[in-house]
């Protein structure tokens, strides 16, 4: 078995066993607390340029199948596990995690103390790390890492290049792809919506020309402030078309309304995060994956109101616009992987669209009269 090192930018070094691709890789080290869903996680574009530590000790036990992917080409830079299963047992399994990572040129490391690594991230925050050979100097690699800037064009790299249509007979939705999980698309097609997926840099004018009933802002990787063209687009469609934002879409919606975002110490990544809805008083278990948050003190209450917040750290989890038909959530209601508690938000969005359409028709009739 080939030995591999994981070296962090502070010099902390872990020695384990290599699996997956043989190449060296650098990325932001983050951790995910989900017990299941590793296939959805490794294929989620929101993990672009990141190396994911799985806190659950055994990963790969139910293999890889063709149904649970969230994108065609994974953007993750690597996987860190305590133990990787070489011989999965599941009726849907078509190959092992190791063989899939080899095919996709994604490196992994197993046999390290993932609990120790997770505790270090929790204490000092996310940091850069590198998979390298067992002979590499930890001091030299750490010095290089500390003087290396991570790329900031993640959304550009994971977004679709050209628009495409998934036909349906229901509401016409424009889905802006900032790194969209296929789960979001599945939720709309399940409801017979006509979905047009467009690139991240699509302008407000181009979206309005499509005459959609609603606009969906998808999830995606990186810092929301690195996508200023999306903020400008959102400002151009607010008040014209109902809008729903998820994860990065939530943060971009907040920026467009004058709020601020900031990087979290180690983020929220897992499938068991409790969120409280202020209006109903209900608590939902949610699936989350984000390293940035909307700053609570920056929210201008004459425009935005907080609808939901995280019970673990009181961070903002939901917003709604007080004047226009628009709302957003920080977590993933498409829940792949994760609980289904918040899935009705898609129905709420479609109801908002129908109410807006009725108001528009009444307004037209009044004008004609």
Automatic annotation (TrEMBL):
PROSITE patterns: GATASE_TYPE_1. CDD domains: GATase1_CPSase. Its EC number is 6.3.5.5. Pfam families: CPSase_sm_chain, GATase. The keyword ATP-binding applies. Residues 1-171 are annotated as: CPSase. Keywords: Amino-acid biosynthesis, Arginine biosynthesis, ATP-binding, Glutamine amidotransferase, Ligase, Nucleotide-binding, Pyrimidine biosynthesis. Residues 2-132 form the Carbamoyl-phosphate synthase small subunit N-terminal domain. It catalyses: L-glutamine + H2O = L-glutamate + NH4(+); hydrogencarbonate + L-glutamine + 2 ATP + H2O = carbamoyl phosphate + L-glutamate + 2 ADP + phosphate + 2 H(+). The active site is at 247 (nucleophile), 332, 334. InterPro entries: Anth_synth/Amidotransfase (IPR050472), CarbamoylP_synth_ssu (IPR006274), CarbamoylP_synth_ssu_N (IPR002474), CarbP_synth_ssu_N_sf (IPR036480), Class_I_gatase-like (IPR029062), CPSase_GATase1 (IPR035686), GATASE (IPR017926). Pathway: Amino-acid biosynthesis; L-arginine biosynthesis; carbamoyl phosphate from bicarbonate: step 1/1; Pyrimidine metabolism; UMP biosynthesis via de novo pathway; (S)-dihydroorotate from bicarbonate: step 1/3. L-glutamine binds at residues 46, 220, 222, 248, 251, 289, 291-292. HAMAP family: CPSase_S_chain (MF_01209). Small subunit of the glutamine-dependent carbamoyl phosphate synthetase (CPSase). CPSase catalyzes the formation of carbamoyl phosphate from the ammonia moiety of glutamine, carbonate, and phosphate donated by ATP, constituting the first step of 2 biosynthetic pathways, one leading to arginine and/or urea and the other to pyrimidine nucleotides. The small subunit (glutamine amidotransferase) binds and cleaves glutamine to supply the large subunit with the substrate ammonia. NCBIfam families: CPSaseIIsmall, PRK12838.1. Composed of two chains; the small (or glutamine) chain promotes the hydrolysis of glutamine to ammonia, which is used by the large (or ammonia) chain to synthesize carbamoyl phosphate. Tetramer of heterodimers (alpha,beta)4. Belongs to the CarA family. This is Carbamoyl phosphate synthase small chain. The gene is carA.
């Amino acid at each position: 078995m080939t030995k591999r090192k994981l070296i962090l930018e502070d010099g902390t070094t872990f020695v384990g066993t290599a699996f997956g691709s043989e190449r060296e890789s650098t990325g932001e080290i983050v951790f995910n607390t989900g017990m299941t869903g590793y296939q959805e996680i490794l294929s989620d574009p929101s993990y672009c340029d990141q190396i994911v530590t799985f806190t659950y000790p055994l990963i790969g036990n139910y293999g890889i199948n063709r149904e649970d992917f969230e994108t065609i080409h994974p953007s993750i830079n690597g996987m860190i596990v305590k133990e990787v299963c070489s011989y999965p047992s599941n009726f849907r399994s078509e190959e092992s995690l190791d063989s899939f990572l080899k095919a996709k040129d994604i490196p992994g490391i197993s046999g390290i103390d993932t609990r120790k690594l997770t505790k270090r991230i929790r204490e000092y925050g996310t940091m850069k790390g590198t998979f390298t050979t067992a002979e590499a100097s930890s001091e030299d690699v750490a010095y290089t890492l500390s003087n290396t800037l991570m790329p900031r064009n993640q959304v550009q790299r994971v977004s679709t290049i050209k628009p495409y249509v998934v036909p349906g007979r229901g509401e016409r939705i424009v889905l802006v792809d900032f790194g969209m999980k296929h789960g979001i698309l599945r939720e709309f097609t399940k409801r017979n919506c006509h979905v047009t997926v467009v690139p991240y840099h699509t302008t407000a004018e181009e979206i309005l020309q499509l005459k959609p009933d609603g606009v969906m802002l998808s999830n995606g990787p990186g810092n929301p402030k690195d996508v200023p063209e999306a903020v400008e687009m959102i400002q151009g469609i607010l008040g014209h078309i109902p809008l729903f934002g998820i994860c990065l879409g939530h943060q971009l919606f907040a920026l467009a309304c004058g709020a601020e975002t900031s990087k979290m110490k180690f983020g929220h990544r897992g499938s068991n995060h409790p969120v409280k809805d202020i209006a109903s008083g209900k608590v939902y278990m949610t699936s989350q994956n984000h390293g940035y948050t909307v700053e609570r003190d920056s929210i201008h209450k004459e425009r935005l109101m907080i609808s939901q917040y995280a019970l673990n750290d009181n961070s903002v989890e939901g917003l709604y616009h007080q004047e226009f038909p628009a709302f957003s959530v920080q977590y993933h209601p498409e829940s792949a992987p994760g609980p289904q508690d918040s899935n009705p938000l898609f129905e709420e969005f479609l109801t908002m669209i129908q109410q807006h359409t009725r108001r528009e028709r009444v307004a037209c009739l009044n004008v004609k009269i």
